[in-house]
Amino acid sequence: MARALITGCSTGFGRATAIELKKRGYEVVATARRPETLADIDADARLALDVTDDASVAAAVAAAGSIDVLVNNAGIGLAGPVEVVPVAEVRRLFETNVFGPLRMMQAVLPQMRARRAGAIVNLSSVSGKIAAPLSGLYAASKYALEAMSEALHIEAGHFGIRTIVIEPGYFRTSFSQSHRDFGVDAPPYDELAVIMEKVSGQLGRDAAPGPEVVATAIADALEQDGPPWRVPVGEDAKMIIGTRAQMDDAAFEKTMREVVNLEW
């Protein structure tokens, strides 16, 4: 029976993935910074884990034992213009979204390599492929995760370890609780923030599906032999990423401006 450690299980994609993998017969190690939030999850182990802390990562991995699947889900959000967002906030973002998954991968890869088997699932985003206005710094953290994953796909694949990158579009989760905004409610970028809020409505985000769709995509990818290692999830992600792959920079920008009527 495969054993999966999932980060950030208190809410959203992490919680839904823990539930889905347990249904499919995995031994689930659910983790969160506050383990009391995991009390109602059917898991084989519930552990405290702060991916920004070296000692916490080492302790959780040691307590988890043999890990066949690592799902790097824990993450935070950040919005604001590149000009305005404090550098300290960007460092905080990267500690969770980039260095957190890196710590976890470095912690579990040696045992997977020794067994010549295992899977690393990294939760990226459509923002890991396309940087929207006011989301450039969050996108930068996901671009970095995509780059590490692309290298790992070759590096660890040699030892029988799979790398899977999940690229969700917009889904209804409590992600906004860990999301911070800067410079969007005052000049010179407040007008752009209003425009982008309208764009969100045009993309149908109010009717977005719940996180279970992403959890299903993760479980399905793990169960398939040799799936595409990048997996867009959601109709918006498939459309945006697919369109971007077919166009050069100028054509893509022109098309997206026309689709969402972006005048800025």
What does this entry look like structurally?
By secondary structure, this protein is of the alpha/beta class. The chain has a single domain, classed as Rossmann fold (3-Layer(aba) Sandwich), CATH 3.40.50.720. It is built from eight helices and nine strands. The strands form two sheets. Strands 3-2-1-4-6-7-9 form a seven-stranded parallel beta sheet, sandwiched between helices. Strands 5-8 form a two-stranded parallel sheet.
Properties at a glance:
Rossmann fold; 264 residues; 16% strand
Tell me the layout of helices and strands.
Layout: E1 3-6, H1 12-23, E2 27-32, E3 45-48, H2 54-64, E4 69-72, E5 77-79, H3 87-115, E6 118-123, H4 136-155, E7 161-168, E8 179-181, H5 190-202, H6 212-223, E9 230-233, H7 235-245, H8 249-260
Parallel strand pairs: 1-2, 1-4, 2-3, 4-6, 5-8, 6-7, 7-9
Q: Could you state the CATH homologous superfamily?
A: NAD(P)-binding Rossmann-like Domain
Extract low-pLDDT stretches: none
Number of helices: 8
Shape: globular
β-strand percent reads 15-25%
Structural class estimated from helices and strands: alpha/beta
The pLDDT mean sits at 94
Largest sheet: 7 strands, parallel
**How many beta-strand runs?**
9
Helix content: 40-55%
Q: Over the alpha carbons, how many angstroms does the gyration radius reach? A: 18 Å
